[in-house]
């Protein structure tokens, strides 16, 4: 056997491929991404549960930070999943987003740096936040408390990513008032678009009454399984309806992505060479480049632009009227 053949065979083992990918990630991580002119505040929302909001928030945030940007994740879900995934302590006594929203405490008091990822910060959520939906009702400026807190935060930031709970209550409204952009993760599964119309109508309402700059800038297809026809169908349908907003990169279904949170890590540090890590890095690159190029849909604010798609395939669409 020739030496070159041996090398070719060795290079083709799974470990070698992972190592190569890891090197590629490390190389890319040093490259840097365009820094937005002003802080981009992105609301990661979809009231449908388990579609990949938290996974997307933490992995995009880590990807952006690993490219040298300063990123704050705000965990706005009482489940505290984003805090867990970033290895941030969030037991009941930890100062958290609850203190910010309900007690009016400065955001800077509760933000913690994420170990292992320079430039990444997290405002944790504790179980206290479960009561906030109700407590907020009687407070002054109940819809804009998060917006005020972010505006008063003095540390320089390139991105703020807000991980919303799977509901459209006052917590999500606070996020929509605070952000400029909405990022909607859509799971490439049966009933993927269920409830999307309702979310889009909420975005329209908040834009009309509380936050004129708000717009859906980004849609990310998650848990894409290339082996199934259904995933391809859902992806095609979403791309047809949201041609401008859908990122080219889809996130594949990946065991590594789902394992990472149990180690208090993002997939970027847990397994940097995995397909999941690479896909989030690529999605972050697309997001940053589109933002820098001004192609994030801000100009398209005509009402009804994001009308709920009509049921084409009964399998995945829901008529939410
Ligand atoms: N690309 C992926 N491949 C495999 N598993 C994934 C992927 N993305 C997310 N998951 C898993 O799917 C589950 C739901 O993901 P995640 O918690 O991010 O969704 P969510 O929308 O934040 O949920 P919730 O509505 O409860 O807040 C988690 O167990 C997560 O680990
Ligand atoms: Mg979540």
UniProtKB/TrEMBL annotation:
Recorded hits in SUPFAM superfamilies, A to Z, give: P-loop containing nucleoside triphosphate hydrolases (SSF52540)
Listed InterPro entries: AAA_dom (IPR025669), DNA_Partitioning_ATPase (IPR050678), P-loop_NTPase (IPR027417)
The region called Disordered is annotated at 293-321
* Residues covered by the AAA domain: 40-215
**Source species, domain of life:** Bacteria
Pfam families documented for this protein? AAA_31
Q: What name goes with this protein?
A: Chromosome partitioning protein
Species of provenance: Kitasatospora paracochleata
